[in-house]
Amino acid sequence: MQMNRQSPNPYHYYDAVRESSMFFGRQRELQIIYQALMKHQSVSLVGARHIGKSTLLQFLGNRKIQQHYGFDLQHHIFIMTDWRGYLQKSREDFFSALYDQVIAQSQDLITFRSHTLSGEDNFRKLLEEIKNNGFHPVLLMDGFDRVTSNIQFDPHFFSFLRSLAGINDLLTYVTSTIKPLHKVCHSDAVAQSPFFNIFLTCSLGPLTHEEAREMIISPAQQTPYTFLPTEVDWLLKQAGQHPFFLQIACRHLFTEKMQQIHENSAIQFEQVWKSIYEELLPHFNQAWEDLESEQRIQLTTEIFQDAQPGKLFLELSGSLLFRKHLRATLQDNLSSISIKDLREALDHLDDLEFLTQCKLGNLRSLSLQSDASDSLLPTKQGIQVRALLKKAFEQMRPAGLRNDSELEWRSYNILWYHYFRYHLPNQKTAARLGISSTRQFYREQDKAIQELLKEVLELEAKTLNEIE
After folding, report:
1. Lower CB count within 10 Å: N or C terminus of the chain?
2. What crossing angle do the helices spanning 269-290 and 320-333 adopt, rounded to 10°?
3. Window from 109-113, 145-149, 245-249, 260-264 with minimum mean pLDDT
């Protein structure tokens, strides 16, 4: 690879990679997609932001890559299109742009006749002409969720797209979206369109461990600043196997290596770590926002419960940088839990639906309360909230046998009689404990709930501190 003297850092990509020398891995996904395309099977490529969807689409049409995996797709014409700016465009805009891009990317193979039609009819005529010339177009549709979210694209529009790839066999689609196609549609009517039934789903996640190592090592080997084995291990630990996180991490460490060599000084890993973290911070926040509520629970469970990162969200949980960010974020959320929030949860201790929706449901220590028997219940989070409250309550228990008259048992007994055991009204609870003043009882009850909140937050803090 020829290095630019003014910009020798090879890890400079912030968007889709366009140099084949910087395209790594994706062996499994390429095999799946190429096998589908050989049968004219459309593919839905689904993956998180910056996971490499656009990069993969860019290289699907590369003949050397196709041949490397043993596929002969020379009669397929790969048409790369980007729909990320089409949230407000019209159907006429869509087909006009598509028509122009198909011609522009096919004109080296086919001499097209001029057409007098417009819109959908014009586009169909173009595809028929390509087919008559012995070729089959593959439409690579990056950012296709911008089309499915556009209210101007109705079920009739998607029915037309399906007809092109159906019995007419004029076209095969490869779409890329952040979420599955049926989840990015602007209406149920669109989501139920037969168009979405023609796709094979290919999920794009992290690189394999070997692919990630190759992505780190190979570009630097073409320069005087090769990464040492310890540096490779450090990068993998910090960024995990997420290609974008790795690209950013490699760029910062590579820049530091160049500086260190010129100044004959040691690499300042702490400063490099800080630079990487600051650049990735908005992407960490966006990755968290993109997750659905249940996915957030699954991710935090994956991080808190496993000694080694799990596989479901490995692109995030495999990064030490992300794990530290998640811990910092969740620790910031501790102060948002109030006495009022806890009292409301206690008042609804037997209402699992309420507990599922209450503010305490955001606590990450709940992941430690998971049980295989309730993993499929819609109120699983409510069960976890109740288990957490009971655990925190038992930590308030003084030593020895419970006693109604001992002051050291006062806070525990107030919660025990009113919330956790007998559900006695406040007046009866006060009478059992020998508290004659209503005002004093409520002061004592507030104190007990404060102590319980302290135990809950200590459990949460302990859980968060266990993250590496």
Report:
1. C
2. 70
3. 260-264
**What tokens does 128 get?**
């028929």
C-beta separation of 40 from 169 below 8 A = yes
- Amino acid letter, residue 2: Q
- pTM of the full structure: 0.76
Query: What pLDDT was estimated at residue 303?
Result: 78
3-state secondary structure of 429: helix
pLDDT band at 322 (very low <50, low <70, confident <90, very high): very high
Residue 129: name the closest of 85, 77, 190, 191 by CA. 77
CA angle 240, 241, 245 (to 5 degrees): 70
What is the token pair recorded at 271?
């400063």
Q: Which of 206, 208, 98 is nearest to 144 (CA)?
A: 98
User: Is pLDDT of 166 > 70?
Assistant: yes
The arrangement of strands across the sheet holding 42-46 comes to 76-82, 136-142, 172-177, 42-46, 199-203
DSSP-derived secondary structure letter, 45: E
**To which H or E segment does residue 78 belong?**
strand 76-82
Rounded CA Rg of the chain: 29
> Is 70 exceeded by the pLDDT of residue 368?
no
Pairing between β-strand 42-46 and β-strand 76-82 as defined by DSSP bridges: unpaired
